[in-house]
């Protein structure tokens, strides 16, 4: 539905120091080659149950083979099995997508030495830590792998390792739940990126419950509790927008009330203002105009406090729309005129189009056609960055006005001589 301000969907972040965690030289695997065709086949057949001689032969003379043999020689059977599964999964994704797809044109995971090196390095370290039940170290290695694969084409790998982190975090009992909290946050971001907002909300709520009352901070110095509040504000707003689109108005309002509470707890005035604005719009959709104005006035005051002129303009316009619904047209015009003062001061081009059109429509409904047309003619191009995309809209608005006025046979009564100019003369002003 998107009646609210755009709320950007968050995605998991890349590691800030990824270059510092790269694995050792790719020569590592090559140092452990098993010489001889038959020796390779026997070794693989012995250690990997069900692997045929033909499948074993596929590992010869490839960098993938070097990595796999090194894992097996050092006894990292779990790491080998996991790597083998990931390669097979990539192949399955490619086959499912079919020829011509983006993934079809990419190299197989088995043909990308840098990624194989990362997987070899961190999978074996995680397995070694798992044997000693050092679950925090297992978690860190899995998290490093998630950070390694943050490019769009690798996100399925990133998401896989975030899921592994989440499972491992449940086993860590010595940190008060911090790793589990971080894992919930990351899984929430993964689901949010995929558009699965309900699942994302579940993880963010768990993240909040684990961090509330704690002094834990992220690498930017922000407390994890405030980060959880921001995540919940954002996901509740996204959920409410979908609910309004599905006509679930009361559920949307309850969700937006929670979003406002989270914004307040986060101590973020901008978020609080936007939450109040969205809630005001939601109340307006169900006809609760007095409550809508109350919330929109909250947004107005916060915008004044922050010096947010764009926010002030949105608040004035939204309040005016509610006042029109209440029949308080004169009061609505006052708010729209204040809005227009702001749009002219700070050159909010697209907002000026909306304001002039809205105010012109109000005058038109009141029968003040001359003022309505003059208002619409104020929508002149002041910025090439926004005008081309709105010219058709303004043309239609002017044409519609002329048709209405002529239908009412009031053109010569209400319009000044400017309105009697030809269309070409009028558009010379643009």
TrEMBL record:
<dbReference type="GO" id="GO:0005737">
    <property type="term" value="C:cytoplasm"/>
</dbReference>
<keyword id="KW-0963">Cytoplasm</keyword>
<dbReference type="Pfam" id="PF13181">
    <property type="entry name" value="TPR_8"/>
</dbReference>
<keyword id="KW-0802">TPR repeat</keyword>
<dbReference type="GO" id="GO:0036126">
    <property type="term" value="C:sperm flagellum"/>
</dbReference>
<dbReference type="GO" id="GO:0003341">
    <property type="term" value="P:cilium movement"/>
</dbReference>
<dbReference type="InterPro" id="IPR051476">
    <property type="entry name" value="Bac_ResReg_Asp_Phosphatase"/>
</dbReference>
<dbReference type="InterPro" id="IPR019734">
    <property type="entry name" value="TPR_rpt"/>
</dbReference>
<dbReference type="InterPro" id="IPR011990">
    <property type="entry name" value="TPR-like_helical_dom_sf"/>
</dbReference>
<comment type="function">
    <text>Axonemal protein which is implicated in axonemal and/or peri-axonemal structure assembly and regulates flagellum assembly and beating and therefore sperm motility.</text>
</comment>
<protein>
    <recommendedName>
        <fullName>Tetratricopeptide repeat protein 29</fullName>
    </recommendedName>
</protein>
<keyword id="KW-0677">Repeat</keyword>
């Amino acid at each position: 539905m998107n009646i609210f301000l755009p709320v950007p969907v968050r995605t998991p972040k890349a590691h800030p120091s990824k270059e510092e965690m790269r694995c050792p030289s790719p020569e590592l695997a090559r140092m452990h080659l098993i010489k001889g065709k038959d020796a390779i086949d026997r070794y693989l057949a012995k250690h990997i149950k069900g692997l045929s001689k033909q499948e074993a032969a596929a590992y010869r003379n490839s960098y993938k083979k070097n990595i796999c043999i090194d894992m097996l020689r050092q006894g990292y059977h779990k790491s080998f099995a996991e790597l083998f599964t990931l390669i097979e999964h990539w192949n399955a994704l490619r086959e499912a997508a079919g020829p011509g797809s983006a993934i079809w044109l990419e190299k197989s995971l088995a043909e990308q030495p840098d990624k194989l090196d990362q997987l070899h390095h961190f999978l074996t370290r995680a397995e070694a830590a798992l044997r000693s039940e050092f679950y925090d170290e297992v978690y860190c290695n899995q998290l490093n792998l998630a950070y390694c694969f943050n490019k769009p084409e690798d996100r399925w790998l990133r998401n896989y390792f975030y899921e592994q982190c989440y499972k491992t975090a449940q086993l860590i009992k010595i940190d008060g739940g911090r790793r589990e909290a971080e894992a919930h946050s990351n899984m929430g971001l993964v689901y949010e990126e995929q558009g699965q907002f309900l699942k994302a909300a579940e993880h963010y709520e768990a993240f909040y419950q684990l961090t509330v009352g704690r002094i834990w901070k992220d690498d930017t110095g922000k407390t994890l509790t405030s980060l959880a509040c921001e995540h919940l504000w954002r996901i509740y707003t996204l959920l409410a927008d979908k609910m309004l689109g599905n006509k679930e108005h009361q559920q949307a309002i309850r969700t937006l009330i929670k979003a406002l509470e989270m914004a307040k707890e986060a101590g973020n005035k901008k978020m609080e203002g936007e939450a109040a604005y969205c809630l005001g719009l939601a109340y307006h959709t169900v006809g609760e105009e007095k409550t809508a104005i109350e919330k929109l006035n909250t947004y107005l005051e916060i915008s004044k406090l922050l010096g947010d002129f764009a926010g002030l303009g949105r608040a004035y316009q939204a309040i005016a729309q509610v006042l029109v619904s209440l029949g308080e047209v004169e009061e609505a015009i006052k708010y729209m005129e204040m809005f227009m003062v702001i749009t002219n001061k700070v050159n909010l081009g697209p907002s000026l189009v909306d304001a002039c059109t809205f105010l012109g429509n109000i005058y038109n409904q009141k029968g003040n056609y001359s003022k309505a047309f003059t208002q619409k003619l104020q929508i002149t191009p002041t910025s090439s960055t926004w005008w081309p995309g709105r010219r058709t809209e303004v043309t239609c608005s002017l044409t519609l006005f002329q048709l209405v006025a002529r239908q009412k046979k009031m053109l010569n009564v209400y319009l000044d001589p400017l309105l009697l100019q030809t269309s070409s003369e009028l558009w010379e002003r643009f």
